[in-house]
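Issue: copy button drops trailing tokens. Both records pasted manually instead:
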Amino acid sequence: MIRKVFEKIVLLLACSSALSGQKALTIYNNNLGLVYEVRQIDVPAGLGQVVFSDVPAQIKPASVQINVLKSPSTLKILSQNFEYDLVDGGRIFQKYLDQKIGLETRSRGNVQGVLLNAAGANVVLKNDDGSIQVITRTDIVTTIFPRLPQGLRTTPALIWETENKGAKRRAVEISYLTTGIGWQAEYVGVLNAAEDRLKMNGWVSINNNSGATFENVKLKVVAGDVNIAKRAPVPQMSQMHQLSRAADAGTAFQEKTFFEYHLYTLQRKETLKDRQNKQVTFIAESSTAVKKLYIYQPQVDAKRVKVKIELKNDKASGLGLPLPAGTVRLYKADADQAKLFLGEDRIAHTPSDEEISLTVGNAFDIVGERVQTGQRKLGKRKRESTYKISLRNHKKTPVQVRVIENFRGDWSISTTTLPVLEKTAEKAKWNVDIPASGKADLQFTVVQRW
């Protein structure tokens, strides 16, 4: 019996020692971060107060969860205050209203008096004899305050009122949510000369404006649309333990499914400074099969033909990874092998085996035009319309343009000069081949019912 108790004590001490100093930062797409930390703190005996400092200025205090690792029943957190009234010149002046301060000025030397006002361009002091001094701020060299006013802090902190019936030194787990921190994926793709393959790599771009620096943390990012209520829930501690121990050592992000999201864990610890934007590679360069398309949607743009790059996010094409939402920037090397920027587009969260379509820009040498050549009423709620689409190619090579027409209600194509490539409930698509330095027409008639 004694041996079993001893083994349990050893196990608890080992776990506490292993967890101590552990830090993890999980960042979500929607300006939200989850901080997890194990810290050793000193707690006074009986009723007392603990200052838990180095927390972000944008922390959500109501999201704080505290777990005492050893003998939790002997330590109670009675209340919590979040203090963020930080040291600032203006705040010190406000705190010293109706109190005596000293000023070193250029024109009058050292002066003292009771501070009456310091809100504008002047500082107003009351002398011992009741007279008033008005001193311009530009005349002030130094302001002397007797001490730091009560209530001002150099950094934001959580203040816990505690009742401790156990040891003074305690290991505690703490987790909380903070705003002011977010991430997005950034992709760079380089087209080959034939424009049928794309070399692509990906970055995780993290922007930290939370008001805190996170040093030497296990970094995770979550791809997915997390719903945020007025009081956002925090994952259970048991889940956090599992996440923080899940990955092996390495240098890149490891991807895993987590609930209905995808979790990317960096295989090394990172430091993320306040007011810093950091990029970390998370997709190594891969060569992917792509298709270049010219798209003409006259109801979207009357004359311009868009250039798109389409690919499939599967292993056969060279990818096959869950791709977080982000910006894809495309480049291509010119005759001098200098890479030139072609355009950029955003992608949504894209699972494996899904299609990706990227709008690069508008084709310079291909022009479209759409005119209605006829219309007649076939009934009270039935109409027939005829359209002609003309496409002109000023390039020295032939091109194929995909024409997309959108329709509403119940509709059908009654006649067409080219076969319909694809038809859905809302649109029809045609492929139109245009010779070099030539033109081609598409004519069709649509019958609509409503």
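Record 2 (pasted manually too):
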Amino acid sequence: MYSEFSRNVHVYEDTPLPDSWTRVRAIDFGYTNPFVCLWGAIDPDGRLYVYEEHYREKALVKEHAAIINSRNHSYAWTVADHDAQEIAELRECGCSP
């Protein structure tokens, strides 16, 4: 955890986010180190609000893809690390980054 992080300042529990905010997704591949998928919304001032997370280690890409696809979130774009094989595996599972 980051020393600057404060749950009281940085976490908004059950705060509805306007549908008009741009939705985005970020993926960081991992196996031994956790795989992470974050869904966020960008407010009109450019601040990112992360509203959902998938975080898991020691799972195959197809398992992550099934979980991500089940969340059924819409998003404008995805930012992902540059692992061509894992990106191709996600696409094969119907989860296009």
